[in-house]
Amino acid sequence: MPPPRSPLSRLFTVLLAGLLAGLALAAAALPANLLLGYAATSAVGSYAALPEALRTPTTPQRSYLYANDGKTLITTFYDVNRTDVPLAEIAPVMREAIVAAEDRRFYSHGGTDLRGIARALVANVTGGGTEQGGSTLTMQYVRNVLKTDPNRTAEERAAATEQTVGRKLQEIRYATALEQRLSKDEILNRYLNIAYFGSGAYGIAAASQRYFAKSPAELTLPEAALLAGLVQSPDAYSPIDGDADAALARRAYVLDAMAATGRITAEQATAAQAEKVTLRPTQQPNGCTAVADGHDDWGFFCDYLRQWWLTQPAFGETVAEREQALRRGGYTVVTSLDPKLQQTAQEQATAVYGYDDKRALPIAAVQPGTGRVLAMAVNRHYGLDANPDGQTNHPNTVNPLISGGGGVDGYQAGSTFKLFTMLAALENGKQLATGFDAPSRLPTRYAAEGEASCGGKWCPANANPQWMDGYRTMWDGFGRSVNTYFVWLSEQVGPAKVVEMAQRLGITFRAEADAAFARDNAANWGSFTLGVAATTPLDLANAYATVAAEGTYCTPLPVVSVTAADGDKVDVGEPSCRRVLDADVARAATDAARCPVGQQTTYGQCDGGTATAVDTIVGRPVAGKTGSSEGAATETFVGFTPQVAVAGIAANPDDPGDAVGSAVQAKVITAVARTIRAAVDGQPVRDFTPPSRELAGEVHRPAPQPTPTPSPQETLPPDVLRWLNRARG
């Protein structure tokens, strides 16, 4: 209901009505061009003086997120459900229906239909029936733009719909100015893209999808007439959540109007009126909790993309502006998500733990050389649905369990961090053949007390002395995950260099205790090589991807391309990469990383591994590393080929003290290996580049070793591990 008008406003309305009524009577005796000339000289302003929104439309539009195939829709983001389409993609019958319904003389007036305005004003002032608007399509377009322009204040937007003479005169001026510059088709196209059709659908593209699940080019005559009839009173007439009978009555009016104007025949109008309305209501997804049906696991990737988006200056100077750009900018985003790989990763994660299990297996896959994130899976539903009593984070959560942030620090990844020690040593002059007679326990220079102390010094131990002790090089030390060898190697180069290497490869310390230790006491963080700092599968996969790319680090990237509403590419889709390691150093580390997964190095130096099943599962050149944290609280495996790096960490996100147990390690290895296999399926087999002999060093064939005990555990003895956890602080 319009607000009450003051006596003065009503007086002006009466006077204007009289004036326009006189003009309407005079119009019968004057040529049409003379009448239009009068309107132009008496009421119009210049096109240049129009508000920017009328000259360059900035109507909010929803943004689309697609998978890396550019076709599979992940979700959309919007404040207003709208997508602009060119006039050529709107069925001709829809264009004719809206003209017949709203402005029969659209193609003959100059923006203002004086007879229609006069008739409406007289009827409204004298109370002669239903209130009428008398606005042309051009005037309605002006009003719609001004009331939705995001660059105007709330007061200015509200003023665009006020029932005042001043507002009506402004519409007349603006409409006539637009008609002097724009063609009728341009105005009609703009109108159809901004009009509200009810049930949350703005613009004909959204309305076609909302009511009939089809594009506007596919609309039939009865469908077009129904939609055209809605714009007069969208919420009241909506057949979905309004008055369906009123919608049908309005459709009949539109069909009669189309027949009266010769757009269709009377017979066509009668046949269309008799046709039953078949609605196919569809709701456009909005945001990460509304991803495609059956794919709520995509929500974790979607949320990661949104967080990335909010850091990109290309979308605005502030976080608020970037958020608004995502929801109103009409972007087409082709993401890096590989739906098939995501499905495999999700199947593997849920094969280890079910959705309702308190423990989780988050898995991330990254493309070396680009940093593009290909999959992010975990045995959780991404959503806000309530969980059963006592289950704080399962089966539903929106916490970033795979990527970290938002209160998620990550999980200890155990011996996977030995890679950073090996890289630091290689970079600082050590060779792969660097030997050390690794003892069962190794006294270090770091002060300690209690069970893990040897004469007041920290004394790390090998979990399986029979299998791990003895003369080791980087090759078999890494393959067998010998703790005392890598603690010794860390001492040789200095723990600070190991910590710096991890950070250089993208390991982020989200836990405050880890960040403080790295910042203030890295030189004494001897236990860092054993993976006591928290990390995430995404960080870990990308760090190993850097080695797979022979030392080229790429910032994790969730998109392939971003296209603005005007068709221009936004410069955010290209990888951001830089060399952080000498290529030969990365190749040498990769050579040693062939040992854990049951393959052989260039120089034949592998003689045992902790994840030998990977070779059989992947069936092509592959490298990787296992990791177990204190008391088997977490179990980790990260593997890579030249084309993909995948990491998975089994943990309890809600209770770090709840150990997943060493028995799950084999399942984690299998899950990650099968994900790698799916990622490279159909791709050419690529081998790793061998390291130089200079960096390999003086190689030798290993002496026969005692028969390995099955499935060697990497965890330290419980007493040592308890002390180690306390020592972190």
UniProtKB/TrEMBL annotation:
It holds the Pfam family Transpeptidase. Residues 1-26 form the signal peptide. Keywords: Carboxypeptidase, Glycosyltransferase, Hydrolase, Multifunctional enzyme, Protease, Signal, Transferase. It is an enzyme of class 2 (transferase). GO terms for molecular function: glycosyltransferase activity. Gene3D superfamilies: Biosynthetic peptidoglycan transglycosylase-like (1.10.3810.10), DD-peptidase/beta-lactamase superfamily (3.40.710.10). Its EC number is 2.4.-.-. Residues 683-729 are annotated as: Disordered. Residues 365-669 form the Penicillin-binding protein transpeptidase domain. It comes from the Bacteria. It catalyses: [GlcNAc-(1->4)-Mur2Ac(oyl-L-Ala-gamma-D-Glu-L-Lys-D-Ala-D-Ala)](n)-di-trans,octa-cis-undecaprenyl diphosphate + beta-D-GlcNAc-(1->4)-Mur2Ac(oyl-L-Ala-gamma-D-Glu-L-Lys-D-Ala-D-Ala)-di-trans,octa-cis-undecaprenyl diphosphate = [GlcNAc-(1->4)-Mur2Ac(oyl-L-Ala-gamma-D-Glu-L-Lys-D-Ala-D-Ala)](n+1)-di-trans,octa-cis-undecaprenyl diphosphate + di-trans,octa-cis-undecaprenyl diphosphate + H(+); Preferential cleavage: (Ac)2-L-Lys-D-Ala-|-D-Ala. Also transpeptidation of peptidyl-alanyl moieties that are N-acyl substituents of D-alanine. Residues 73-258 form the Glycosyl transferase family domain. This is Transglycosylase domain-containing protein.
